[in-house]
Amino acid sequence: MLGISLPYLLKHPVAAVTDVASDPLEIWIKLEEKYVGWREGPPPVCQHVSNQNWESLLHERVGAGWPCQATPEFWDLWREVIRELENQGIRPGPASFRAWNDGDAGFTRAIWCLVRHLKPARVIETGVAHGVTSRIVLDALEKNGQGHLWSIDLPPLERDWQKQVGLAVGGRHQARWTYIKGSSRRRLPGLLSQLGQIDLFIHDSLHSTRNVVFEMERAWSALRPGGALVVDDVDVNGGFEAFSRAFSPSQSLICDAEPICPDLRRFNNKGLFGIMVKD
Ligand SMILES: C[S@@+](CC[C@H](N)C(=O)[O-])C[C@H]1O[C@@H](n2cnc3c(N)ncnc32)[C@H](O)[C@@H]1O
Protein backbone atom coordinates (compact mmCIF):
# COMPACT_ATOMS: atom_id res chain seq x y z
CA MET A 1 0.00 0.00 0.00
CA LEU A 2 1.37 3.45 -0.98
CA GLY A 3 4.73 1.90 -1.88
CA ILE A 4 5.54 1.27 1.78
CA SER A 5 5.67 -2.18 3.37
CA LEU A 6 4.02 -3.08 6.67
CA PRO A 7 7.26 -4.40 8.28
CA TYR A 8 8.98 -1.09 7.38
CA LEU A 9 6.04 0.90 8.79
CA LEU A 10 6.18 -1.06 12.05
CA LYS A 11 9.97 -0.74 12.33
CA HIS A 12 10.23 2.97 11.42
CA PRO A 13 6.80 4.48 12.22
CA VAL A 14 7.99 8.07 12.61
CA ALA A 15 10.08 8.13 9.42
CA ALA A 16 7.29 6.38 7.50
CA VAL A 17 4.56 8.78 8.63
CA THR A 18 6.82 11.82 8.04
CA ASP A 19 7.64 10.67 4.52
CA VAL A 20 4.01 9.94 3.69
CA ALA A 21 2.93 13.34 5.03
CA SER A 22 5.71 15.24 3.22
CA ASP A 23 4.17 14.90 -0.25
CA PRO A 24 0.40 14.48 -0.08
CA LEU A 25 -0.08 15.05 -3.82
CA GLU A 26 2.13 12.06 -4.73
CA ILE A 27 0.22 9.96 -2.19
CA TRP A 28 -3.03 11.00 -3.80
CA ILE A 29 -1.68 10.12 -7.26
CA LYS A 30 -0.52 6.72 -5.95
CA LEU A 31 -3.93 6.02 -4.44
CA GLU A 32 -5.62 7.00 -7.69
CA GLU A 33 -3.26 4.73 -9.70
CA LYS A 34 -4.01 1.85 -7.28
CA TYR A 35 -7.75 2.40 -7.67
CA VAL A 36 -7.54 2.58 -11.47
CA GLY A 37 -5.24 -0.48 -11.50
CA TRP A 38 -7.82 -2.36 -9.46
CA ARG A 39 -10.55 -1.27 -11.90
CA GLU A 40 -8.37 -2.26 -14.88
CA GLY A 41 -8.31 -5.77 -13.43
CA PRO A 42 -5.83 -8.43 -14.57
CA PRO A 43 -3.90 -7.63 -17.76
CA PRO A 44 -5.55 -8.73 -21.01
CA VAL A 45 -4.20 -11.94 -22.51
CA CYS A 46 -1.10 -10.80 -24.38
CA GLN A 47 -1.76 -10.71 -28.14
CA HIS A 48 1.77 -9.76 -29.10
CA VAL A 49 3.91 -12.01 -31.26
CA SER A 50 7.55 -11.01 -30.97
CA ASN A 51 9.69 -10.10 -34.00
CA GLN A 52 12.52 -12.65 -33.91
CA ASN A 53 14.70 -10.37 -36.06
CA TRP A 54 13.83 -7.16 -34.19
CA GLU A 55 17.46 -6.06 -34.00
CA SER A 56 18.10 -5.97 -37.75
CA LEU A 57 14.62 -4.45 -38.35
CA LEU A 58 15.31 -1.73 -35.80
CA HIS A 59 18.63 -0.86 -37.45
CA GLU A 60 16.96 -0.78 -40.86
CA ARG A 61 14.24 1.53 -39.49
CA VAL A 62 16.73 4.04 -38.13
CA GLY A 63 18.96 3.82 -41.21
CA ALA A 64 21.90 2.17 -39.40
CA GLY A 65 24.03 -0.65 -40.81
CA TRP A 66 23.61 -4.28 -39.75
CA PRO A 67 25.55 -6.07 -38.27
CA CYS A 68 25.90 -3.16 -35.88
CA GLN A 69 29.31 -1.72 -34.99
CA ALA A 70 27.94 -0.40 -31.67
CA THR A 71 26.79 -3.78 -30.30
CA PRO A 72 30.23 -5.04 -29.12
CA GLU A 73 30.64 -1.76 -27.17
CA PHE A 74 27.34 -2.56 -25.44
CA TRP A 75 28.43 -6.00 -24.27
CA ASP A 76 31.64 -4.64 -22.72
CA LEU A 77 29.64 -2.03 -20.82
CA TRP A 78 26.93 -4.52 -19.84
CA ARG A 79 29.43 -6.87 -18.18
CA GLU A 80 30.96 -3.90 -16.35
CA VAL A 81 27.57 -2.67 -15.07
CA ILE A 82 26.58 -6.13 -13.82
CA ARG A 83 29.97 -6.64 -12.14
CA GLU A 84 29.79 -3.23 -10.44
CA LEU A 85 26.29 -3.89 -9.08
CA GLU A 86 27.36 -7.31 -7.80
CA ASN A 87 30.36 -5.74 -6.08
CA GLN A 88 27.87 -3.52 -4.24
CA GLY A 89 25.97 -6.58 -3.01
CA ILE A 90 23.16 -6.41 -5.59
CA ARG A 91 22.06 -9.39 -7.59
CA PRO A 92 20.77 -7.81 -10.81
CA GLY A 93 17.65 -9.43 -12.24
CA PRO A 94 13.98 -9.92 -11.53
CA ALA A 95 12.64 -8.18 -8.40
CA SER A 96 16.11 -6.94 -7.43
CA PHE A 97 14.77 -3.46 -6.56
CA ARG A 98 11.80 -4.10 -4.31
CA ALA A 99 9.31 -5.79 -6.67
CA TRP A 100 10.88 -4.17 -9.76
CA ASN A 101 13.23 -5.72 -12.33
CA ASP A 102 16.43 -4.17 -13.60
CA GLY A 103 16.53 -3.49 -17.34
CA ASP A 104 17.43 -6.70 -19.20
CA ALA A 105 20.13 -7.16 -21.84
CA GLY A 106 17.76 -6.95 -24.84
CA PHE A 107 15.91 -3.84 -23.64
CA THR A 108 19.12 -2.01 -22.74
CA ARG A 109 20.91 -3.12 -25.94
CA ALA A 110 18.07 -1.64 -28.02
CA ILE A 111 18.44 1.59 -26.03
CA TRP A 112 22.23 1.61 -26.44
CA CYS A 113 21.93 1.22 -30.23
CA LEU A 114 19.20 3.87 -30.51
CA VAL A 115 21.31 6.39 -28.60
CA ARG A 116 24.46 5.59 -30.59
CA HIS A 117 22.66 5.78 -33.96
CA LEU A 118 20.11 8.58 -33.42
CA LYS A 119 22.65 10.81 -31.59
CA PRO A 120 19.83 12.34 -29.52
CA ALA A 121 20.10 15.75 -27.89
CA ARG A 122 17.17 15.13 -25.50
CA VAL A 123 16.29 11.78 -23.94
CA ILE A 124 13.59 11.20 -21.30
CA GLU A 125 13.11 8.01 -19.29
CA THR A 126 10.59 7.15 -16.58
CA GLY A 127 11.59 4.69 -13.82
CA VAL A 128 15.16 4.68 -12.45
CA ALA A 129 15.45 2.10 -9.59
CA HIS A 130 19.10 0.88 -9.71
CA GLY A 131 19.62 3.02 -12.79
CA VAL A 132 20.67 0.32 -15.26
CA THR A 133 18.90 1.96 -18.20
CA SER A 134 20.05 5.41 -17.01
CA ARG A 135 23.69 4.23 -17.00
CA ILE A 136 23.39 2.73 -20.49
CA VAL A 137 21.88 5.93 -21.91
CA LEU A 138 24.41 8.16 -20.16
CA ASP A 139 27.46 6.16 -21.27
CA ALA A 140 26.13 6.14 -24.86
CA LEU A 141 25.55 9.93 -24.77
CA GLU A 142 29.07 10.37 -23.42
CA LYS A 143 30.47 8.26 -26.27
CA ASN A 144 28.50 10.42 -28.72
CA GLY A 145 29.93 13.55 -27.08
CA GLN A 146 26.49 15.16 -26.87
CA GLY A 147 23.02 14.86 -25.34
CA HIS A 148 21.23 14.98 -21.98
CA LEU A 149 19.04 12.52 -20.05
CA TRP A 150 16.07 13.54 -17.88
CA SER A 151 14.87 10.69 -15.63
CA ILE A 152 11.49 10.91 -13.91
CA ASP A 153 11.24 8.53 -10.97
CA LEU A 154 8.94 7.96 -8.05
CA PRO A 155 11.11 5.96 -5.64
CA PRO A 156 9.65 3.70 -2.93
CA LEU A 157 8.99 5.44 0.37
CA GLU A 158 11.32 3.13 2.31
CA ARG A 159 14.60 4.95 2.91
CA ASP A 160 16.69 1.76 2.55
CA TRP A 161 15.43 1.37 -1.01
CA GLN A 162 15.92 5.05 -1.74
CA LYS A 163 19.66 4.64 -0.98
CA GLN A 164 19.89 2.22 -3.92
CA VAL A 165 18.35 4.57 -6.51
CA GLY A 166 20.76 5.18 -9.37
CA LEU A 167 23.56 2.93 -7.98
CA ALA A 168 24.52 1.78 -11.48
CA VAL A 169 25.26 5.40 -12.41
CA GLY A 170 27.09 6.27 -9.19
CA GLY A 171 28.56 9.75 -9.40
CA ARG A 172 29.09 9.65 -13.17
CA HIS A 173 27.81 12.01 -15.86
CA GLN A 174 26.46 14.69 -13.54
CA ALA A 175 26.46 17.34 -16.28
CA ARG A 176 24.43 15.10 -18.59
CA TRP A 177 21.84 13.83 -16.11
CA THR A 178 18.82 15.44 -14.47
CA TYR A 179 16.97 13.24 -11.94
CA ILE A 180 13.39 14.42 -11.37
CA LYS A 181 11.68 12.95 -8.31
CA GLY A 182 7.94 12.37 -8.70
CA SER A 183 5.39 10.38 -10.68
CA SER A 184 5.37 10.59 -14.47
CA ARG A 185 1.74 11.72 -14.28
CA ARG A 186 2.83 14.74 -12.27
CA ARG A 187 6.22 15.49 -13.86
CA LEU A 188 6.10 14.46 -17.53
CA PRO A 189 3.76 17.13 -18.95
CA GLY A 190 5.79 20.00 -17.44
CA LEU A 191 9.11 18.51 -18.56
CA LEU A 192 7.84 18.08 -22.11
CA SER A 193 6.62 21.67 -22.31
CA GLN A 194 10.01 22.81 -21.01
CA LEU A 195 11.96 20.74 -23.57
CA GLY A 196 9.66 21.17 -26.58
CA GLN A 197 10.95 18.40 -28.82
CA ILE A 198 12.56 15.12 -27.72
CA ASP A 199 14.53 12.49 -29.65
CA LEU A 200 14.06 9.37 -27.54
CA PHE A 201 11.62 8.31 -24.80
CA ILE A 202 11.94 5.25 -22.53
CA HIS A 203 9.10 3.97 -20.36
CA ASP A 204 10.12 1.78 -17.42
CA SER A 205 7.96 3.11 -14.56
CA LEU A 206 4.43 2.09 -13.54
CA HIS A 207 3.31 -0.59 -16.01
CA SER A 208 -0.48 -0.03 -15.89
CA THR A 209 -2.42 0.38 -19.14
CA ARG A 210 -3.51 3.84 -18.05
CA ASN A 211 0.00 5.03 -17.20
CA VAL A 212 1.63 3.57 -20.33
CA VAL A 213 -0.96 5.20 -22.61
CA PHE A 214 -0.59 8.49 -20.69
CA GLU A 215 3.20 8.50 -21.14
CA MET A 216 3.16 7.28 -24.75
CA GLU A 217 0.57 9.84 -25.90
CA ARG A 218 2.50 12.73 -24.45
CA ALA A 219 5.94 11.54 -25.49
CA TRP A 220 4.78 10.71 -29.03
CA SER A 221 3.46 14.21 -29.66
CA ALA A 222 6.79 15.71 -28.53
CA LEU A 223 8.90 13.16 -30.43
CA ARG A 224 10.74 14.39 -33.52
CA PRO A 225 10.24 12.50 -36.78
CA GLY A 226 12.81 9.68 -36.82
CA GLY A 227 12.82 9.55 -33.00
CA ALA A 228 11.77 6.48 -30.99
CA LEU A 229 9.75 5.29 -28.00
CA VAL A 230 10.99 2.21 -26.10
CA VAL A 231 8.51 0.63 -23.67
CA ASP A 232 9.34 -2.16 -21.22
CA ASP A 233 7.03 -5.00 -20.18
CA VAL A 234 4.44 -4.56 -22.95
CA ASP A 235 3.05 -8.01 -22.12
CA VAL A 236 1.81 -7.05 -18.64
CA ASN A 237 -0.73 -4.42 -19.73
CA GLY A 238 -2.70 -3.35 -22.80
CA GLY A 239 -1.09 0.11 -23.16
CA PHE A 240 1.49 -0.45 -25.89
CA GLU A 241 -0.87 -2.58 -27.92
CA ALA A 242 -3.68 0.00 -27.79
CA PHE A 243 -1.37 2.89 -28.58
CA SER A 244 0.52 1.22 -31.42
CA ARG A 245 -2.74 -0.04 -32.98
CA ALA A 246 -4.05 3.53 -33.03
CA PHE A 247 -0.79 4.99 -34.40
CA SER A 248 0.00 2.38 -37.06
CA PRO A 249 1.03 -1.12 -35.96
CA SER A 250 3.53 -1.27 -38.83
CA GLN A 251 5.71 1.21 -36.95
CA SER A 252 6.05 -0.99 -33.89
CA LEU A 253 8.42 -3.81 -33.01
CA ILE A 254 7.81 -6.39 -30.28
CA CYS A 255 10.97 -7.81 -28.80
CA ASP A 256 11.83 -10.65 -26.39
CA ALA A 257 13.41 -9.78 -23.05
CA GLU A 258 16.74 -11.50 -22.47
CA PRO A 259 18.79 -12.98 -19.66
CA ILE A 260 20.31 -10.38 -17.39
CA CYS A 261 23.62 -12.07 -18.01
CA PRO A 262 23.88 -14.98 -20.46
CA ASP A 263 26.98 -16.42 -18.74
CA LEU A 264 25.15 -16.59 -15.44
CA ARG A 265 21.95 -18.02 -16.90
CA ARG A 266 19.93 -15.63 -14.77
CA PHE A 267 16.67 -14.87 -16.51
CA ASN A 268 14.04 -12.21 -16.30
CA ASN A 269 10.67 -13.87 -16.20
CA LYS A 270 10.05 -14.14 -19.93
CA GLY A 271 8.83 -10.75 -20.99
CA LEU A 272 8.48 -8.42 -23.95
CA PHE A 273 9.40 -4.85 -24.71
CA GLY A 274 8.18 -2.66 -27.56
CA ILE A 275 9.71 -0.01 -29.83
CA MET A 276 8.01 2.57 -32.04
CA VAL A 277 9.97 4.72 -34.50
CA LYS A 278 8.14 7.85 -35.68
CA ASP A 279 7.96 8.43 -39.46
C1 LIG B 1 11.25 -1.32 -13.36
S1 LIG B 1 11.91 -0.14 -12.26
C2 LIG B 1 13.03 0.74 -13.28
C3 LIG B 1 14.25 -0.06 -13.67
C4 LIG B 1 15.34 0.77 -14.31
N1 LIG B 1 14.90 1.33 -15.57
C5 LIG B 1 16.58 -0.05 -14.50
O1 LIG B 1 16.83 -0.53 -15.62
O2 LIG B 1 17.32 -0.21 -13.52
C6 LIG B 1 10.58 0.99 -12.05
C7 LIG B 1 10.87 2.22 -11.21
O3 LIG B 1 9.82 3.17 -11.44
C8 LIG B 1 9.42 3.77 -10.21
N2 LIG B 1 8.01 4.18 -10.35
C9 LIG B 1 6.90 3.53 -9.96
N3 LIG B 1 5.79 4.21 -10.29
C10 LIG B 1 6.21 5.34 -10.91
C11 LIG B 1 5.53 6.45 -11.49
N4 LIG B 1 4.20 6.54 -11.48
N5 LIG B 1 6.29 7.41 -12.07
C12 LIG B 1 7.64 7.34 -12.07
N6 LIG B 1 8.33 6.31 -11.52
C13 LIG B 1 7.63 5.32 -10.96
C14 LIG B 1 9.64 2.66 -9.18
O4 LIG B 1 9.80 3.15 -7.88
C15 LIG B 1 10.90 1.99 -9.72
O5 LIG B 1 12.01 2.61 -9.16
Core attributes:
279 residues, alpha/beta, Rossmann fold, 7 strands, 44% helix, binds S-adenosylmethionine
Mean pLDDT: 91
Distance between the termini: 41 Å
Structural class by sheet pairing and helices: alpha/beta
Largest sheet: 7 strands, mixed
Strand content: 15-25%
Task: Provide structural commentary.
44% of the residues lie in helices and 15% in strands. The protein is of the alpha/beta class and 279 residues long. It has a single domain, classed as Rossmann fold (3-Layer(aba) Sandwich), CATH 3.40.50.150. A seven-stranded mixed beta sheet has the order 3-2-1-4-5-7-6, sandwiched between helices. Strand 1, helix 7 (132-144) and strand 2 (148-153) form a beta-alpha-beta unit. The relative contact order is 0.16. S-adenosylmethionine (SAM) binds at residues 97, 100-103, 126-133, 152-156, 183-184, 204-206, 211.
Draw up the topology in text:
Layout: H1 6-11, H2 13-22, H3 24-40, H4 54-61, H5 71-87, H6 105-118, E1 122-126, H7 132-144, E2 148-153, H8 159-162, E3 177-181, H9 184-195, E4 198-203, H10 209-222, E5 223-231, H11 239-246, E6 252-256, E7 272-277
Parallel strand pairs: 1-2, 1-4, 2-3, 4-5
Antiparallel strand pairs: 5-7, 6-7
Helix pairs in contact: 5-6, 5-7, 6-7, 9-10, 10-11
The structure holds S-adenosylmethionine (SAM).
